[in-house]
């Protein structure tokens, strides 16, 4: 594609750069009172028409009540919950957990602190605005994939790598520092419980994923989806799958998240105190297709109030000696041969970071034609 649109004189790259260098983010654009969005946010008609057909017959993703399994030895009850988690991860790839043990005050404080960060004047946030820390440390930016994606999306994000190398806590903006650290701890506890249930659902030892270091490489992202004056022309986040093992997502009460289920897009209704869990590509591959990594997206926010979400992506920290991963050998047999080939860390990282998040997932690339 030519950098300059010859017929209209539109220089997309120049506009992207100006927006990026202004460090104002979409929150800054929204707060400035604009009534029409810059052209590089406008998505092609195919994407937008799919957004219009987003009514669905299903009302929500499965909700799983974890009360009774935290600190309890009631085995029959645990087996029931394992079944629910397994079924949801197989058929939806997404579920919402309630009564997970994290106090509502911690949840509220986390949302409040991330909102407070984004609500600061953009001159204050500008000192954190950068792109070079995508693979470690702290970074605040608008659209991680701004220069890689075909069209930009209506959100800004504060991102912090919480592990495996310990984060330099002082690098976090003070306004949300303590809350980010506390949230990482709480969400990791929930992730550990969920990973145990997912392991049991596969017939593995409960601690297998922890042992494989799936809790250790964590990226926390605090998204802000501000009011968008033309929500029919753009998206909050483009349809994608998450690359890692699992994602834990906390959202405020402003809706927008949608999950693909069959041919339909299902609205994920915020449940007070609920946490959304979804399987990523890595989990689909190592479970040999048992658990599904499902497409999801966020609508551009038409509400005057910002939508806030805080996600933590859990990834493998230690790659095997030879650097390759694939379906777990314990899950394979002559009846259940591997449906994916092994892949290297480089392939995994390159697939994600070389293009926009709408890139074809690694899953498609490494599928074996059995
Ligand atoms: C993501 C994502 C959804 C949301 O960051 O990968 O899917 O609700 N976010 O912010
Ligand atoms: Ni996602």
Automatic annotation (TrEMBL):
One of its GO terms (molecular function) is dioxygenase activity. Its cofactor is Fe cation. Residues 213-316 form the Fe2OG dioxygenase domain. The keyword Oxidoreductase applies. Keywords: Iron, Metal-binding, Oxidoreductase. PROSITE patterns: FE2OG_OXY. Pfam families: 2OG-FeII_Oxy (PF03171), DIOX_N (PF14226). Belongs to the iron/ascorbate-dependent oxidoreductase family. This is Fe2OG dioxygenase domain-containing protein. It comes from Castanea mollissima.
């Amino acid at each position: 594609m030519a950098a300059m649109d010859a017929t209209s004189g539109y220089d997309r790259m120049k506009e992207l750069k100006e927006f990026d260098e202004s460090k104002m983010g979409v929150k800054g654009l929204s707060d400035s009172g604009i009534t029409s969005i810059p052209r590089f946010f406008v998505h092609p008609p195919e994407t937008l028409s799919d957004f219009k057909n987003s009514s669905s017959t299903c009302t929500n993703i499965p909700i799983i009540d974890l009360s009774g399994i935290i600190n309890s030895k009631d085995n029959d009850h645990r087996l029931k919950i394992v079944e629910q988690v397994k079924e949801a991860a197989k058929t939806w790839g997404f579920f919402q957990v309630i009564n997970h043990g994290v106090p509502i005050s911690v949840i509220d404080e986390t949302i409040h602190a991330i909102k407070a960060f984004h609500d600061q004047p953009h001159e204050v946030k500008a000192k954190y605005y950068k792109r070079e820390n995508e693979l470690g440390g702290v970074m605040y930016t608008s659209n991680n994939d701004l220069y890689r994606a075909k069209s930009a999306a209506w959100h800004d994000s504060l991102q912090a790598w919480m592990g495996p190398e310990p984060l330099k806590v002082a690098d976090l903006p003070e306004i949300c520092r303590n809350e980010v650290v506390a949230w990482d701890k709480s969400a990791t506890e929930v992730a550990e419980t969920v990973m145990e249930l997912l392991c049991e659902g596969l017939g593995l030892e409960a601690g297998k994923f922890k042992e494989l270091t799936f809790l250790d490489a964590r990226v926390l992202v605090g998204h802000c989806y501000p009011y968008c004056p033309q929500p029919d022309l753009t998206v909050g986040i483009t349809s994608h799958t998450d690359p890692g093992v699992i994602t834990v997502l906390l959202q405020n009460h402003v809706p927008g998240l949608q999950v693909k289920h069959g041919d339909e897009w299902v609205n994920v209704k915020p449940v007070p105190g609920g946490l959304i869990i979804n399987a990523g590509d890595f989990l689909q591959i190592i479970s040999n297709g048992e658990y599904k990594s499902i497409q999801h997206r966020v609508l551009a926010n038409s509400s005057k109030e910002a939508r806030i979400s805080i996600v933590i992506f859990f990834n493998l920290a230690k790659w095997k000696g030879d650097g390759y991963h694939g379906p777990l050998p314990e899950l394979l047999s002559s009846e259940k041969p591997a449906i994916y080939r092994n892949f290297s860390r480089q392939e995994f990282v390159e697939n994600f970071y070389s293009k926009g998040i709408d890139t074809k997932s690694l899953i498609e690339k490494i599928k074996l034609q059995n």
